[in-house]
Amino acid sequence: MIQSTSNKTLLSEFTNLLRRADQLVEQQNHEGLKDLIKLVLRPLQSIHLLDAYVKDDHQSIGELNKQWCFGFKSPIRIKQNDGSFVEKKYEDWLWSEGCFIENDDVYPTLSLGSDITFSAPWEPRRIINNLGKIGKDRPYGEFVQDSNHMVFYIYPLMIGTVGGGNHSIMQGILDGKGEIKPTEMYDVSPLLTSVSFDGASWICSYSGNNIGTPRYPELGWVWEIAKRYVEVQSAQ
Fold first, then answer.
1. Among 140, 79, 135, which residue's Cα sits nearest to residue 112?
2. What number of H helices and E strands is found in the chain?
3. Which residue, 54, 118, 164, 216, shows the most beta carbons closer than 10 Å to its own?
4. Spatial separation of the C-alpha atoms in residues 17 and 40, rounded to whole Å
5. d(C-alpha 92, C-alpha 94), whole Å
6. Is residue 222 within 8 Å of 15, Cβ to Cβ?
7. What distance in Å separates the CA atoms of residue 203 and residue 117, rounded to the nearest whole number?
């Protein structure tokens, strides 16, 4: 949660957000839905960038883990074409044939200036020593991806989570320049209709059961916008 707000306020914000997302669906504006996802995620990105600078050493909130941040406590059930169901844990779905994208030729190149990549600096010495060092006419030059930089991309949530190179990637984000190719990519489109976010918790679309709570409610907001994005994309 970005700030301390009441459940009633969060639900109102969620309702208003989806109302606007539905207007974009009516306009068949898939690029607008992508921008709306960025608007939701940008404040969370800032929290993860700043946290190490306002906390005691080694006490920052850490990375946005691609598996655990969504907080699914029960398996996700997907309905097959023959009417049967398959259940797997969220992390197992990520590595399944339907979600894990093996062909890295189709991986997008992410712009550190405009796409959402969650970097979480943490090492006390490096958070200071890297500031002001990456960028044009700076000591280390502009950001260039190397083998130390690992980003895991979750589509169509448009989320990149960093698994390595947090400090230099953060500087690329602050500089607003540089590009990075994901190390791994997961397409969670097959899961979207199986789970709904009700403003507080994940709800199984088939049983109606509560199956967990995301680390941030905004991750649930993005899940619901991504459903609409896929809907518009498939209609075009």
1. 135
2. 7, 12
3. 118
4. 9
5. 5
6. no
7. 27
The reply to whether 194 falls in a domain is yes
| Length of the chain measured in residues | 236
Q: Residue 216: which residues within 8 A CB-CB, separation 6 or more? A: 1, 2, 44, 69
Residue 172 lies in a domain: yes
Question: pLDDT truncated to tens, each residue of the chain (236 aa)?
Answer: 444 567 888 889 999 999 999 999 999 999 999 999 999 999 999 999 999 999 999 999 989 999 999 999 999 999 999 999 999 999 999 999 999 999 999 999 999 999 999 999 999 999 999 999 999 999 999 999 999 999 999 999 999 999 999 999 999 999 999 999 999 999 999 999 999 999 999 999 999 999 999 999 999 999 999 999 999 998 88
- Confirm whether pTM is higher than 0.90: yes
In a domain, 64, yes or no: yes
Count of the separate structural domains present in the chain? 1
CB of 67 within 8 A of CB of 95? no
In a domain, 1, yes or no: no
Range of the domain at 125: 30-235
